[in-house]
Design goal:
The protein is mainly beta. It contains no helices and 15 strands. The strands form two sheets. Strands 1, 2, 3, 4, 6, 11, 12, 13 and 15 form a nine-stranded antiparallel sheet that branches. A hairpin with a 2-residue loop joins strand 11 and strand 12. The N and C termini lie far apart (about 35 Å). The relative contact order is 0.29. The N terminus is likely disordered.
Length: about 200
Amino acid sequence: MACMGWRWILLLPLIAACRPAESARYTMDFKNGAPGWPLSAEARFTVRTENGHLVLSLKPPRTVGWVLSPFSFRDGQVEVEGALLEGPSSTDYGLILQAGEGRFYRFAVSADGYYGVFLYEQGSWRILVDWTMHAAIRTGRTTNHLRVRRAGTEMIFWVNGMEVARIQRGENEGGGRAGVSMGTMAWGNARVAFDRFAAVRDR
């Protein structure tokens, strides 16, 4: 994934509000569907469960699509397993964090070995960690485990158990919902699968 201009954004009704989960811990393996996750069957972007996985399909190039879980937190941790099913190796996938009021963080890895951290705010993207190659990322159509922990002013990012990035945040930033996303670069028509979504809320 060579350096490229940032992609267009696909804003979808999948970010419509759902009631947050009550428990401080939340797990979802998608074996019995995806209760609380807004599924979609739009032509450009679909979200559905298949064979015990949450599968996202995205047709347009240079586009990001996402779906949010019913779980939210300010301080805590979220993790998921993801893999490319179909499409070019430049396809990326990962976690959405602290989503709410037109603002969220995005942590993603690509099937060709890159990761990045981005902040979306009121229609614009800000690069926090630009696309960077890392040996911890398994390339191709293999599974990667992504984890993020937020504690105080710090966010820490892991891929397959290895820390790849650490960023500072504002002291007064609130919390928000967690979810998953996928993105395309120059080529679209990609599918990714997620499994074993788990989160814990410290507060």
